[in-house]
Amino acid sequence: MQKARMIQTDATYKLTWQGYPFLVAGTSDADYVFHPLAVAVTKGETEDDFAFLFRALHARNLEWKPEILLADASEAITNGFKAVFGEPDVRAMCFFHVVQNVDKYLRRFSKKNRSAAQELREDINVLQTSKSQQMFLQASALFLKKWRKNTDKEILEFIEYFEKEWLIVHPNWYEGAAPGFLSSNNGLEGTNAIIKKEHTLRERLPVGQFVNVTESMVRQWSKRRDPRSINCVFFPTLVVSL
């Protein structure tokens, strides 16, 4: 944890009979391997719930302050982070969640605009590769200029939505938003999938039983990161290319 400059968090469901969310917070190393740091079973996904999770981490080292928060567009996550650590240097937006929301919108396009929807997605993928804020701003301006020449109401409404939601309110989903760090929570999502596949066997458990499973799971994670272990999962902070 003390080596981490970024914190990633999300919630997953379908683990308990009661339907409680399971919050996971972690970070990724220089090889982009995800390392879980803390988990919590809560009644909701409120600011207080995420602040509870972050406060548990902070209590381990009161001087530790991650600089980057990577998550979906949840204001509860952002506000929970601020309540414990203050304003992040970068509030990174998970590109996977941008894609999910964009694709959901584009699937509503009429048949005559299917090719335009495909082209829009391709252009958004290009925007995501921007290596700096300046490049992203310039590319975004060209993107808007290109698509505002279109007179189709359906396309123009999407452009209005995309500009407001993903260029103004939640813009930090491009590669250069946090150089050297991830732009998607794929490692965390993969961990959630492993929890369901290997630890709960894809069954919903009573919350008491699930807490026992969680304690066992966390012990396994910790043992895998014990430097004395033959199969230790180390935390590299620098990638050397040969």
Summarize it.
With 242 residues, the chain is of the alpha/beta class. It has eight helices and five strands; from the N terminus they run E-E-E-H-E-H-E-H-H-H-H-H-H.
Describe this structure in words.
The protein has 242 residues and is α/β, with parallel strands linked by helices. The chain has 2 domains: 128 residues, 2-Layer Sandwich (Nucleotidyltransferase, domain 5), CATH 3.30.420.10; 83 residues, no CATH class. It is built from 8 helices and 5 strands; from the N terminus they run βββαβαβαααααα. It has a 5-stranded mixed β-sheet, with helices on both faces. The longest helix is centred in the C-terminal third of the chain and has 18 residues. The model has no long low-confidence stretch (mean pLDDT 94).
Strand fraction equals 5-15%
Q: What number of domains?
A: 2
Sketch the topology as an H/E string, one letter per element.
Answer: EEEHEHEHHHHHH
The rough form would be described as: globular
What's the arrangement of secondary structure elements?
Layout: E1 6-12, E2 22-28, E3 34-41, H1 47-58, E4 68-71, H2 75-85, E5 90-93, H3 95-106, H4 114-128, H5 133-148, H6 153-169, H7 186-199, H8 207-224
Parallel strand pairs: 1-4, 4-5
Antiparallel strand pairs: 1-2, 2-3
Helix pairs in contact: 1-2, 3-4, 4-5, 5-6
